[in-house]
Amino acid sequence: MTDSNSGWIKSTCAYCGVGCGIEARPTSLGKLEVRGDKEHPSNYGKLCTKGVALGDTVTPLGRLTQPMHIQNQLHIQNQQQQALGWNEATQLVSDRFNQTIEEFGPDSVAFYVSGQLLTEDYYVANKLMKGFIGSGNIDSNSRLCMASSVVGHKRAFGSDTVPICYEDLEDTDLVVITGSNLAWCHPVLFQRLRAAKQSNPNLTVVVIDPRYTDTCEIADQHLAIESGSDVALFNGLLSYLANNDALDEEYISKHTQGFEQAIESAKKYVYHSDSNINFEQGVSQLTGLTEQEVERFYRAFASNKKVITIYSQGVNQSSQGCDKVNAIINCHLATGKIGKVGMGPFSVTGQPNAMGGREVGGLANTLAAHFEFGDADSHQTVSDFWQTDNLATKPGLKAVDLFDGMLDGKIKAVWIMATNPVVSLPDSAKVKAALEQCPFVVVSDCIADTETTRLADVVLPAQGWSEKSGTVTNSERRISRQRRILPSPGEANPDWWMIKEVAQKMGHQHAFDYRHEGQIFEEYCQMTSLDNANGKLRDLCLIGLTNLDDKGYSELKPQQWPVLKLQQDIVNQRMFTNGEFFTASGKAQFVAVEHSQPLTTTSPDYPLIMNSGRVRDQWHTMSRTGLASSLGEHTPEPFLAIHPETAKKFGFATSTNQTNQVVKVKSAQGESQARLVLTQEMRKEQVFMPIHWNGTTAKNSKPCDLILPNTDSNSGQPEFKHTPVMIEPCDYRSEAVLISDSVVDCDEFDYWVRQKVEGGFLYRISSSKNPMELVIQLANTLDALPEPNAEAIKSLHYHGNKSFKNYGSAKLGQSGVKQAFVVNSKLDHQSIDWLVECLTREADEEFEAEFLSTMAK
Ligand code: SF4
Q: SUPFAM superfamilies annotated for this entry (predicted)?
């Protein structure tokens, strides 16, 4: 939707599940201006740092622009890359998929897709795999972020339905945030909650998290719970509610089933030491909290009428993720705190379109559009709708199993769309080996060089955010348009288009005869309107969107499902308001759950528990946010956060000057390295490492190299939050800071991390060589760089003293500083800032004098 006067185009942010509305317009200088959309009901004009910097990430730098066939992909030296036209590329993919299916059957092929895809892309991919190839082997990286919530919802409600809307945060009494650093991971939602608290001082916020995070800034109570003990805490709460006359008996009897079994389990979790039953299950012992802390939280939940429990990856990414979700939902059902204004369990999703993927059925264990496997009527309905006689009859392989399937030879062709599993799945070494083993790997992405594209046989250039067009759904079930704002570079095309090209070449011309994304959206909406007979609508019903014409789709305003009638104005609606659920009985189901330890725990070899998660200004594997210099400043380097006492216990100096060292982190799975950061915010037995850095932005700094492929047996979601590790010093002997106007291959160095800065890149390097050897290595590295414009290069050197205590060198071209480095520098932040500024300065005599005098300081 374009404002014809000003050129602003409405769209949605590329990142998290808050799904903020933005407005963007290209400028005459070839940039993209971005601002919050004041009319969008999810953010009313607000954006976080990532959203504000969206315009800085729109660059042709590093884009994949041409389909390529890469032969001999495992032998870099002998690799042959052949550029292909789209017709050839999609023919090659369809031929190889067809040959594989013919020889080994439909379950020998797979798609691994992403919450970055738009709903239209997802729908077409799901339709091809489940409807026409006839296999359930399509899974998504959303498996890594909310699969446990999907299972928890389905077990309790009979459907994957988020009950509440954002507006509820503004009319509630108590918000419990568990397993979520909302302030960093869903910042605009956090700002909304902060504003609600400011205008209503009676609003209480409780944060449950082993770490003290920025989210705790607005907390009235922080419960630094022991990793993996959420079921014990919420079972104890259910027990407390029953013992303190805080149940809603009428709601339980009218609208739920299974309470007796659930309370039978829960009452084993004793929250008070006066109690004389089974003290083995004492909540205090299991959670590491004091009885007073626990009871204060329980009292707050019981005494406040309106309660929202927000939860995210800290709950989901666990080998007991589904049980944690149901332990939370049980407490809401038992008190009737659901389906009304200002109350309910609230799973916030990580990715921009994780919800859209769930809706169309883009997970291996769901069929399509909230129709499920294992139901003959649903199978018939979907078969008839798609006019296929080859619909998959059983769930496919979930993410971790799917890559295991490649490793053991079951999966022989895979198409990976818009995701980088070598970096994001646990046990990266195994994922890499699986892709090396798989005979045919297709990767469609907008970025050319990722750890996954490096293993592809065919790469297909996809459109990126601001180029593609379609819809996404956010955490409050609100569907919004992403609109095309800029042209795509090179040959990049929409994901749905390349899937339909392959599908048609595989022989399914008619079923994939799409000309534009609006047509796909309409078909999807029609599918959601099936089987809504007998006066009972299914939860995901978009019947009100089935008659959109091109203009209607183009101008579509945000719609919150269910959509029975096109929403012209902002709608905020809750689910389960009438106490009816989508189970066979129409009643919500309590699920009896028990606390159990995570699948692996500490040992003398691995005595610490590593938690992993996001930092404020980066997103996933940094392929987009890593392009914005403003976003690199907040956390420039991968780090390992540790309590000072723990650091001391493991032999690390704890005075600020000496702790800033790179350390080795080891698990039973692998090794990684990061800079040690001391903080009181950690529990003493835990460390924390961010997930973003990988082989293209740092050396050996991936937590996924360490994380074991343990999963929840119900959801298949990996346990990212609980990895036993050991830390050791790296004992590097020298350090350097390098700036460059172009990317430098630093893989020869023992440790490096790259940060995008204005005018180029900043590298922090550590080495086991002595300073003099490092100087020589750096000089050789820079000498080997190509000089594309055959510029006259002038070199400056500063040699502090004979022991190379401070060695500086710069290469100056006509256009300015090309590279500069300082070895063993004592450069503080200000001096590093000065060095970075060199990249945007003229390399004149004044600069030369300043460089040498700064080195001499
Ligand atoms: Fe984008 Fe999420 Fe930030 Fe909103 S809160 S601007 S959706 S990253």
A: ADC-like, Formate dehydrogenase/DMSO reductase, domains 1-3
From ligand 1's centre to the CA of 21, what distance in Å?
Answer: 9
The number of angstroms, rounded, from the C-alpha of 158 to the middle of its chain's C-alpha atoms is 26
24-38, 470-484, 681-695, 788-802 — most confident range: 470-484
Ligand 1 site, residue 188, Cβ cutoff 6 A: yes
0.85 surpassed by pTM? yes
Ligand 1 nearest atom to the CA of residue 48, by list position: 3
Largest separation between any pair of C-alpha atoms in the chain: 88
CB of 13 sitting under 6 A from ligand 1: yes
CA of 54 to the centre of ligand 1 (A): 10
Ligand 1 centroid to Cα of residue 633, in Å, is 18
Token readout for 70 is 């890469």
Rounded CA separation 240/253 (Å): 19
Helical pair 119-126 and 517-528, crossing angle rounded to 10 deg: 70
Nearest to 234 by CA among 121, 152, 167: 152
Q: Confirm or reject: Cβ of 19 under 6 Å from ligand 1.
A: yes
**Chain segment 182-201, per-residue pLDDT in tens:** 999 999 999 999 999 999 99
Instruction: Check pocket membership of 350 for ligand 1, CB cut-off 6 A.
Output: no
How many distinct helices (H) and strands (E) make up the chain? 27, 32
Atom of ligand 1 nearest to the CA of 14: 1
Ligand 1 pocket test, candidate residues 38, 56, 186, 476, most atoms within 8 A of CB? 186
Say how many Å lie between the CA of residue 423 and the centre of ligand 1.
22
Q: Between 230-243 and 259-266, two packed helices, what is the crossing angle to 10 degrees?
A: 110
Q: What pLDDT does residue 118 have?
A: 96
Ordered structural domains, the chain, with CATH: 9-57 (3.30.200.210), 68-141+353-560 (3.40.50.740), 158-347 (3.40.228.10), 608-709 (2.40.40.20), 737-856 (no CATH)
Between CA 618 and CA 161 the distance in angstroms is 29
**Alpha-carbon Rg for the chain in angstroms:** 27
For the chain, give the mean pLDDT.
Answer: 91
Q: How far apart are CA 423 and CA 196, in angstroms?
A: 37
CB of 15 sitting under 6 A from ligand 1: yes
Residue 162 phi, psi dihedral angles, 5° rounding: -85, 120
Rounded distance from Cα 50 to ligand 1 centre (Å)? 7
Write out pLDDT tens, residues 396-406.
999 999 999 99
- Is any ligand 1 atom within 6 A of the Cβ of residue 771? no
| Cβ of residue 18 lying under 6 Å from some atom of ligand 1 | yes
Rounded to an integer, what distance in angstroms lies between the CA atom of residue 639 and that of residue 732? 16
C-beta of 20 in contact with ligand 1 (< 6 A): yes
Q: For residues 771 and 775, what is the distance between their CA atoms, to the nearest angstrom? A: 6
Nearest CA to ligand 1 atom 4: 20
Residue 791 · residue 815 · CB < 8 Å: yes
d(CA 389, CA 382): 10
User: Could you give the residue ranges of the DSSP H alpha helices within 408-460?
Assistant: 421-424, 428-437
Out of 11, 12, 13, give the residue to mutate to test ligand 1, the one with the largest number of ligand atoms within 8 Å of its CB. 13
In degrees, rounded to 5, the angle at the alpha carbon of residue 377 between the alpha carbons of residues 376 and 379 is: 65
- Dist. CA 352 → ligand 1 center (Å): 9
Structure confidence by residue, pLDDT tens digits, 796-807:
887 765 554 678
Ligand 1 atom closest to Cα of 12? 7
Cis amide bond preceding 771, omega within 30: no
Q: With pLDDT > 70 as the criterion, what percentage of the chain qualifies?
A: 95
Ligand 1 contact, 411 CB (< 6 A): no
Quick one: which of 6, 7, 1, 38 has its CA closest to 22? 38
- Burial class of residue 71 (count of CB atoms within 10 Å of its CB; 0-12, 13-18, 19+): exposed
What percent of the chain shows pLDDT beyond 90? 70
* Residues 393, 131: Cα–Cα separation, whole Å: 10
